[in-house]
Amino acid sequence: MGEMQAMFRLLTALALWVTLSTGSKIVIQSSPDYLLQDLTRTLTIRCSLMDTDAPSGQVGRRAAGDLTETQLDVQSVTAISVVRNSQAEPVANLTSQPSAAVPLTDFTSLKVHGSLGKNHVSSPNSEHAFLEMQWAHPGRNQTGGYTCFIHAVDAQGQSVVFSTSAEIAQEFPSSDDMLGHISQLEKTVESLEERLKAVESSTGLLKAPHAEEGMVECVDSDSWNQDPYGNNGRYVFHTVKFQTPYDRPPMVSLGIDLLDESSDAYLRVHTDIDNLTKDGFTVRCGTWADTYIFKVRVRWVSVVA
Ligand SMILES: *[C@@H]1O[C@H](CO)[C@@H](O)[C@H](O)[C@H]1NC(C)=O
Ligand SMILES: *[C@@H]1O[C@H](CO)[C@@H](O)[C@H](O)[C@H]1NC(C)=O
Ligand SMILES: *[C@@H]1O[C@H](CO)[C@@H](O)[C@H](O)[C@H]1NC(C)=O
């Protein structure tokens, strides 16, 4: 009976250990899987160390001798590096000192980023660390075998190096690929045309801006209205209506174009704008004291504000 109980306890403990224990696994993914010559616009390769919750019971080793999976969860990831082809051309590195992902080749087209993750943090099926490489307009130079190495330290302080590879091939596009590409381009052009039309109509960018001009003459200051504030102030209003109303009140500027007055007194004249709306405005001409104005001609220009 005692033996049975001990056995049961052992089994329970084992089951618990198996359930709680997590492992680590290196994964390399590329998008797309292969390049279509001159058609593929971006190539993304991401190498990750995943926390797993279902230990395979075996340390994963592939024919090439890569360590791909362990039953032990890693404590920390110290570096990720990616090399290309049999010459092991360095492609990108991510280290903790300095803590940054750097491209080591294809400098004009390759952008890289990544993270070594946090120590001790382990949640099953989540990514512990990664290095992602993205090429713009990939071509033959980006084809070949990519091998990713992830340097890590396990809970016992042992260093572990995971590695795995992916092969990027380039294919000549089939006529289906080309037709698909053309139809995609046509859709893009159509949607750009629609957006352009919307921009044109909303901003009126391609039309000349709405501008108008005209003139107003104020004659014979003896016939003008008397200004109630004294000093023989006199003024007259002239209403201007725009040929086409603006969407909102425009900017208007005035300039005196001609001035004819009596030489018996000092020259005194002022002109200004009143009640400016999108439909028009009022010009006020004024003088004061003993000045006599035969005629003041005011030229105006309005433009969209
Ligand atoms: C990239 O990382 C690998 C492995 O850690 C290292 O051997 C190599 O020297 C590094 N290269 C550069 C340029 O930092
Ligand atoms: C491919 O690589 C070679 C050698 O590094 C280089 O001279 C050439 O410019 C590259 N081609 C492209 C399209 O980047
Ligand atoms: C300006 O508008 C106000 C309010 O509508 C009006 O009372 C005033 O007479 C107007 N002035 C002129 C010069 O038209």
TrEMBL record:
Leader sequence range is: 1-23
Please give the InterPro entries that the UniProt record associates with this protein. Answer: Galactose-binding_lectin, H-type_lectin_dom_sf, H-type_lectin_domain
**Residue ranges of domain H-type lectin in the record:** 239-302
Keyword Kinase carried by entry: no
Q: What GO terms are given for molecular function?
A: N-acetylgalactosamine binding; oligosaccharide binding; polysaccharide binding
Any one GO BP annotation for this protein: cell-cell adhesion
Keyword Phosphoprotein listed? The answer is no
Keywords, alphabetical: Coiled coil, Signal
Q: What Pfam families does the annotation carry?
A: H_lectin (PF09458)
Q: What is this protein called in UniProt?
A: H-type lectin domain-containing protein
> What organism is recorded for this protein?
Elysia chlorotica (Eastern emerald elysia)
